[in-house]
Design brief:
Strand order of the largest sheet: 13-12-11-16-15-14
Radius of gyration: 51 Å
Largest sheet: 6 strands, antiparallel
Helix content: 25-40%
Structural class: alpha+beta
Number of helices: 21
Shape: elongated
Strand content: 25-35%
Number of strands: 32
Length: about 800
């Protein structure tokens, strides 16, 4: 039979907190467990009243212990703490002559200790305890489930021996070692697959040191949280945030589709394609999608984690018809995302009907596919569909779920708005470009005064087209007008204003006004346009340069309305920036324009341009003009090549402003091609004028034109003598046509009228108009010049 004394001895040796108290209440024995519990050594308490250790009424505590055998007692610890401890008392019986003693034992609350153990075992997170050598001591049920083995399989095993040799395992071990080395808690995160599972998880670990009551470090405890949901939520937010800056960087439909595909691969899918309606790619309003017969879409973009996108069954830019039951067609027709995976009838049937897709599926027969088709809907209109594909493997077995659908919808919605904006921009830009192209010259009527080449480049910006223009206008007397202008601003409004100004210049040029007078009339017109444009601001800004070159006397008259000056390259390769009188911009009103006269030898190159060619944010006009002069001096084989060389030398890849460039190389008429006679105002000299003209035509070999020319000379000289007065000049010009000109001192312009039956005059100009191809009048110095033009005989 085991006595209570022998049981107490075994308990004391086991390290339990025990004390022996004699009948007088003095401590007679003190165990090692009691020392660890209270901090007092046996020497500190032996022989002292036990009541000194009690926090409270010691007598009441003693009575309770004697009566009930146990009680919860507040004890004073050596470090000053006061803590309640459950005590149990047991009498010791020795010999009959020994005085009675009691064993007082600190008994842990078994219920509370059991709760703690249950909480550890049943925690909904992975919890483990390692010793200082990183060997397992304890694991709760969740940790065992994650590791795939019971706790007994891991106890006292070194951690690296229980996991794969991978970067995340080495990182985990190193953090365990840091806790053991420093005694400080640490935090560790990893993205890995658990030994017992196939799916990737985000783990967040808290590791802290485990110490005895005396402060000795005996191990490391940890709690691991599966933070995959939070991880994916952060990834989705990051992807959406990135989409805000990476989708729709340009107003280009195809570029936007490409940006969407490249964003979702590989973070959301292994392969992505974006197919759009043909009308969307053309910038038109989206067509109504037919319900029967399938949907035809054109591939705008696709992207794969594998270079070359081997999953693509159709090429970029190619069209394909999607059957009504296919996921892309269903998404397009319903406006809602469609999920499918290998084994679904609709998906398998669609692949089977399409030879290329069937072949792709057979290539991936070892793996299932998860597919998501998401419609691109903007402003209630469906523009196309994005298809995302995941290849399901043992390493990546997760198919698309509803969270992925929500994310894809957000991305597709953002992309759809950008695609629609790009579509609208494409339509407006195409319209504006078509308008502007229609307003710019395509061909120029026959003229021989200059050989010319031109370039027009609209700005590559969101503002679209602008108001730059140029023109080559044939004038009477083989002369030619060279025009270049620039309306301030961009867009359709600037283009329309440019068209109106260009039409006005043509009308004024037809009147044959000198350059300064033409700009004066054009300035008045701009003021009227600004007053009646209905915009409310009442301003239209424009510049213009108008030059008239005469190949007979090789003169050039130039006037500028706030425009950059032209550049002349003479036959000796000398370059000159023409100092043109700087007139005001069109629309200012009230200020004069001045013409600058210069002589251009045959073969001179005259360069007219707009400020977009020479001015940029990083370059002033003077620097740009110097660069233009240098570029024009470079030897080239043609004017077309010269235009290309100038643009290449001066313009960046994306010019910020419209650019118009007109290069004209001058020609000159030989003296033998022009005949001039000064006449008096004597009517008797009309016959002599006819004779002079006839003789000149004979020398030129134009006998077939004599009859008509005699009639024209007779009528024009007669009118000049009768209505104009001296000085009178007759001039014949033989070029591509035969031109007859008569100048007089009157500034009154002639006009056609219908003569009555008994009128003796009034039929001269009508006769001239009937016999020639063109006729007209222009001011010349103090008078006017009436001219008539007829075609050369066919034999010539």
């Amino acid at each position: 039979m085991v006595t209570k004394a022998s049981g107490a001895s075994r308990a004391a040796r086991a390290g339990e907190a025990m004390a022996v108290v004699d009948a007088r209440g003095l401590v007679a024995g003190w165990s090692e467990g009691a020392r660890r519990l209270t901090g007092y050594t046996a020497g500190d308490v032996t022989g002292r009243p036990a009541a000194d250790l009690v926090d409270g009424d010691a007598a009441a505590v003693w009575r309770t212990l004697l009566t009930h055998g146990d009680a919860v007692v507040g004890l004073r610890y050596r470090d000053g703490r006061r803590q309640k401890v459950a005590l149990r008392i047991c009498p010791l019986r020795g010999g009959e002559d020994e005085r009675r003693r009691f064993v007082v034992q600190a008994t842990p609350d078994q219920a509370e200790r059991g709760l703690g153990e249950l909480a550890f075992k049943q925690a909904s997170m992975s919890m483990s305890i390692f010793d200082t050598g990183q060997r397992y001591l304890r694991m709760n049920d969740w940790a065992c489930q994650v590791m795939g083995q019971p706790e007994e399989e891991f106890r006292h095993q070194y951690f690296p021996d229980t996991v794969e040799d991978a970067e995340h395992s080495r990182g985990f071990l190193r953090h365990l070692e840091i806790v053991a080395e420093t005694g400080q808690p640490v935090h560790y995160e990893s993205w890995t697959r658990s030994p017992s599972g196939r799916r990737m998880h985000a783990w967040s670990f808290e590791m802290w040191p485990v110490r005895t009551r005396s402060g000795e470090l005996i191990g490391t405890a940890l709690a691991g949280f599966d933070s995959s949901e939070q991880f994916w939520a952060r990834q989705r937010l990051a992807l959406l945030n990135e989409a805000a800056g990476s989708i729709g960087t340009k107003l280009d439909v195809v570029q936007t589709a490409r940006e969407l595909a490249e964003l979702v691969v590989p973070r959301l899918a292994d392969f992505a394609s974006v197919d759009l309606l043909e009308s969307v790619l053309q910038g038109e309003e989206p067509e109504t999608v037919p319900v029967d017969g399938g949907v035809q879409l054109r591939r705008a973009a696709h992207h794969s984690r594998t270079p070359g996108a081997p999953e693509a069954a159709i090429g970029l830019g190619s069209a394909d018809v999607y059957p009504p039951a296919s996921p892309p067609a269903r998404a397009l027709l319903t406006g809602a995302p469609v999920l499918a995976r290998t084994g679904d009838d609709a998906l398998d049937s669609w692949f089977a009907q399409h030879g290329a897709r069937s072949a792709k599926l057979q290539e991936a027969e070892d793996h299932d596919l998860s597919l998501m088709a998401v419609p691109l809907v903007a402003r209630g209109t469906t523009l196309g569909v994005a298809v995302l594909v995941r290849i399901l493997t043992p390493e990546h077995p997760d198919a698309f779920d509803q969270d992925d659908v929500s994310l894809a919808e957000e991305l597709s919605s953002r992309a759809a708005v950008c695609v629609d904006n790009a579509r609208r921009y494409t339509r407006e830009r195409t319209t504006a470009l078509a308008l502007q192209r229609s307003l710019l010259p395509k061909t120029v009527a026959g003229q021989a005064a200059v050989e010319f080449a031109s370039r027009y480049l609209p700005a590559l910006s969101q503002a679209g087209v602008g108001g730059d223009w140029f023109d080559v206008i044939p004038l009477s007397g083989t002369r030619v007008a060279l025009v270049v202008g620039d309306v301030v601003g961009h867009g359709i409004h600037a283009s329309v204003t440019m068209g109106r100004l260009r039409t006005a210049v043509w009308a004024l040029a037809d009147v044959d006004l000198p350059p300064d007078e033409l700009l004066t009339h054009l300035d008045d017109l701009v003021e009227h346009l600004a007053a009646g444009d209905g915009t409310g601001d009442g301003e239209i800004g424009a510049t213009c340069l108008y030059a008239v070159y005469d190949p007979v006397d090789r003169s050039c008259s130039i006037a500028s309305a706030g425009h950059v000056p032209p550049v002349v390259v003479r036959p000796d390769d000398s370059v000159e920036v023409v100092e043109v009188a700087a007139g005001p911009m069109l629309g200012v009103g009230g200020l004069p324009f001045e013409a600058t006269e210069l002589e251009l030898p045959e073969g001179s190159l005259l360069a007219l341009y707009t400020d977009g060619l020479v001015e940029a944010r990083d370059r002033d006009v003077d620097t740009g003009t110097a660069a233009l002069c240098a570029a024009l001096q470079e030897p080239v084989d043609s004017l077309e090549s010269a235009c290309d060389a100038v643009l290449k030398a001066l313009l960046p890849d994306t010019p910020a402003d419209d650019v118009a460039l007109l290069l004209a190389r001058t020609r000159a008429l030989d003296a033998e091609q022009v005949a001039v006679w000064n006449l008096s105002d004597d009517p008797a000299l009309v016959a002599n004028a006819r004779k002079l003209a006839t003789e000149q035509l004979t020398r030129w070999g134009l006998e077939e034109a004599v009859f008509v020319t005699e009639l024209v000379v007779s009528e024009l000289v007669t009118n000049a003598i009768r209505y104009g007065g001296a000085p009178i000049q007759l001039r014949l010009i033989r070029d591509r046509t035969l031109i007859c000109e008569v100048s007089d001192a009157s500034s009154t312009s002639p006009h056609l009228r219908r003569a009555r039956t008994f009128d003796e005059g009034g039929r001269g100009l009508l006769l001239v108009a009937q016999l020639t191809d063109r006729w007209g009048s222009r001011p010349s110095g103090a008078g006017k010049t009436i001219w008539a033009e007829q075609a050369l005989p066919p034999s010539l």
